[in-house]
Design a protein that fits this description.
alpha+beta; Beta-lactamase; nine-stranded mixed barrel; six-stranded antiparallel beta sheet; globular
Length: about 525
């Protein structure tokens, strides 16, 4: 294994000796024989054939476990081949995942396509696209904002405009954005600004005649075989741009591989190589400090600390698409991390030194262990607990709820040998969540209404498959735990029974991670007799 110092020295050689990116549709199997690959997937290979020790992957998985950070998935691509992949159960490979701000890099891609089509340039003025939405007085700074300033987070705003946009209560998000004061000269003040990415999405829709999502569905997702994606929209159907895209882990890896290949895919130039180069290069200084957010910013891509040339798209709570051109590698990660720097440092400390220039001898024992480690990844459910003596008195009873923001009428608990069925009724609907006692249950569980009890405060809330488990904390308190498998977060319900009454306190995983209170009110109900 190379040391970190040797690794950094190797970077000076650029891509020399790294090897040739695999040419689709061919890859090599474990025996090194060329085989025809499934065109809908990236090719697969053993780590050793691509110059990585299987043991190093196992060490990385161990380091993730020791860190306490919650990963949901991980995929490592080397020389165009997936060499390691894993999902922390109950998350699965087929589930899409909310990307948060990693969505911004996809929006940048759509802007690049519009520029390539001659529909706009990065020097175009922002206000030229919204003549009917401008404030009564257009300031000199607002007038000076260009597309490139939106791309580089240099609009001159002192705040992220997403908050003011939402707080304005106006369905016209562009108008609300344009009303926010531009306090600095554009190009002189870096401020991470999700509203700026929304405006890019809005502009692309104006010039291309369709939403960013529809544009990318045809020109990016289709050739890369990215299926089942979706993207949140504003009240007028504009893709929100700066967040809200959902794709699978392998789709993130494909996106990174496209950029690694300078916009080319299966011999087709999906995105101009010059745009890829410009978008991923340092265009502006970024945040202060000495970390992975202080290395400069491109066109909706961050630069990375370990060495020049590394870049990434990233999203809140640990959604990463890390591209390492010098070492011909891509790392895709999803999760619910409350320490994003530590999440990346795990990659820098464990994966980077393992990337060798040449193939390594096969190591069956290490490879078998790695596959076992990747196959055994899981988020622990609530531990199995003894049944409460109250369970027999509670089961099947309907508790009528008092006034609540979700207009829920009642809840029911039905206990079986290894599960609790939790049923919510109200507003003409009835939904039952099966919660495993000491295990996750996924089948049949769905979060369908973004405005329901399941909507976590101030978080992206969309329909999602759910995994649920339950345990008695004591004889009076039943803990229900849910993970939203196509989102990022989860929820906890603490149901306390006292005579014929129940009270339900809620705490989201977001509130847990931030060690902050959950602002949702207590639900209370009383057993309805007869």
């Amino acid at each position: 294994m190379t040391t970190r110092r040797t690794f950094l020295q190797q970077l000076s050689y650029g891509a020399v000796g790294i090897g040739i990116i695999s040419t689709f549709p061919y890859c090599r199997n474990a025996a090194g024989t060329a085989v025809v690959a499934d065109l809908t997937q990236l090719p697969r290979s053993t780590p050793e054939l691509q110059g990585i020790s299987s043991a190093a992957i196992s060490r990385f998985i161990g380091a993730v476990k020791d860190s306490g950070i919650q990963f949901h998935s991980f995929m490592l691509v080397r020389h165009g081949n997936v060499v390691a992949e894993g999902w922390w159960s109950p998350f699965e490979s087929g589930f899409k995942h909310t990307l948060y701000s990693l969505s911004k890099s996809f929006t940048s891609t759509a802007v690049g396509m519009a520029v390539a089509d001659g529909k706009l340039t990065v020097e175009d003025q922002l206000i030229s696209f919204f003549p009917d939405d401008l404030p009564e007085t257009v300031s000199e700074n607002l007038s000076a904002v260009k597309i490139k300033h939106l791309l580089t987070m240099n609009t001159g705003h002192a705040v992220d405009t997403l908050g003011p946009i939402r707080d304005a209560g106006d369905d016209n998000w562009a108008k609300s954005f344009l009303a926010v004061p531009v306090e600095f000269e554009p190009g002189t003040h870096f401020k991470y600004n999700t509203g700026a990415t929304y405006m890019l999405s809005n502009i692309v829709q104006k010039v291309m005649g369709r939403s960013v999502f529809d544009l990318l569905s045809e020109r990016l997702f289709k050739p890369l075989h990215i299926e089942g994606a979706d993207w949140e929209t504003d009240p007028n159907g504009v893709s929100v741009g700066g967040f809200g895209l959902r794709v699978r882990t392998e789709d993130i890896a494909k996106f990174g591989q496209l950029y690694l290949q300078k916009g080319q895919w299966n011999g087709e130039q999906i995105l101009p190589a010059q745009w890829v180069e410009t978008a991923t290069s340092k265009q502006t200084e970024s945040q202060e400090g000495d970390n992975d957010w202080s290395q400069g910013y491109g066109y909706q891509f961050w630069r990375c600390k370990p060495a020049p040339g590394f870049y990434r798209g990233d999203g809140a709570f640990g959604q990463f698409c890390i591209v390492i051109p010098q070492l011909d590698a891509v790392v895709a990660i999803t999760g619910e991390s409350f320490d994003l720097q530590r999440s990346m440092t795990l990659v820098w400390e464990n994966i980077l030194p393992a990337l060798q220039e040449s193939a390594l001898p096969e190591d069956k024992a290490a490879n078998d262990q790695m596959l076992a480690d990747l196959g055994n990844l899981k988020l622990a459910p609530l531990p199995a607990s003894a049944a409460s003596p109250q369970a027999d008195q509670i089961t099947g009873k309907e508790y009528v709820l008092g006034d609540n923001p979700w207009k829920l009428d009642s809840v029911t608990f039905q206990f079986g040998a290894d599960q609790c069925l939790f049923t919510l009724k109200g507003g003409g609907m009835s939904q039952t969540i099966a919660c495993g006692m000491g295990k996750w249950i996924t089948e049949g569980n769905e979060k369908t209404d973004p405005q329901s009890l399941f909507a976590l405060p101030y978080r992206t809330s969309v329909s999602s498959k759910m995994a649920a488990c339950a345990a008695w904390e004591d004889e009076k308190t039943l803990h229900l735990k849910w993970k939203f498998l196509e989102n990022v977060h989860g929820d906890n319900l603490y149901c306390t029974f006292d005579g014929d009454q129940v009270s339900i306190a809620m705490k989201s995983s977001f509130a847990e991670g931030q060690n902050s209170p959950d602002e949702r009110p207590l639900l209370s109900g009383k057993y309805r007799q007869g």
